[in-house]
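Folds vary. Our protein:
___
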Amino acid sequence: MEARDHGTRRQRHGDHPATAARGRGWRNAHLASVSPPTNLTPGAGGPGGGGSGSVVGGGADPLVVNEHEAATLLGRALDSPAAAARELRGLGVRSVVVTLGAAGLVGHDEHGAWSQPARHVTPVDTTGAGDAFAGALAARVAAGHGLREASAHATRVAAYSVTRLGAQPSYPGPADPLP
């Protein structure tokens, strides 16, 4: 039942990355301490998952979703992404960021609504751009930056990522110039 990919063990669906890493004997022992992320997709079995929008409220701060995920959480088509951010915040989320791809993002927090345009780049591959954005945003917030500054930085990281092929290989390093 073990999946094979060119003679090496491949992560099976449902394996935690740290479990897969230990199984391959990776030297990156720190991966064993990684916790699996909470899946906020309705119906995915995460907190409140059931498809009714009940996942909002409580733990996510900020709640970062794309416009399609926002519509799913609200259970309807969006009137506007800004209205969706405001509505999600009204359901008990302390801060919300709705990503809009090449159109940037809209956010809503205790200080009100804001928007951030995307950086203009020539995209090569958008695979992983949302993950690049979310990771950069989380890192900046964890380092003590405010959500708006972190969002501005994250749009630059996402813009960088779409100018290269792949997901993880397209993420910038600390010395890479961001658009």
In short: Helices lie at 17-24, 67-74, 81-90, 129-142, 147-161.
